[in-house]
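Take a look at this chain, tokens included, and explain the fold to me:
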Amino acid sequence: MSKEQYGFAIIGAGVIGHTHAQRLENVDKGKLVVICDQSEEKAREFGEKYGCEWSCNLEDVLARPDVDIVNICLPSGMHAKFTIAAARAGKHIITEKPIDITAENALEMIKECRQAGVKLAVISQHRLQPSTQQVKQDIESGKFGKLVLGSAAINWYRSQEYYDSGAWRGTWAFDGVGH
């Protein structure tokens, strides 16, 4: 996969979709081609803000030959459905974390991407933080001896305002958790 420039489609014009669009502005070989959202108003405003086309029709977006990579920026419980559609259309996929809210859906996503011969990446922005890199370096150097088992947990604080910012947040259907 080596081209002069890769065309990106973002699915989902919410907060994280804007983050992806802003980051793509700094990718030399990447160009945001189109935004797709179920809300015509949100899609149009997003397209105007980032200078890309907009659509409310997923099938039309996935049929575009100028779209190489699809960024899935939707509630977690929707990742599988849209990833599988993009894979079947022959598009590479970057999806927000978590990969999905069930192991079965995650495995189906991986299977579909393998069958389609496309790449699937899951956002994990903290893997490049200095503390994470230090732990990795310490493990690889043998500082901790021979590791036979590992477990890690990070408790992120989310305010009520965070959960109130999207009706899907904190739900079983779309976030994999309950209030």
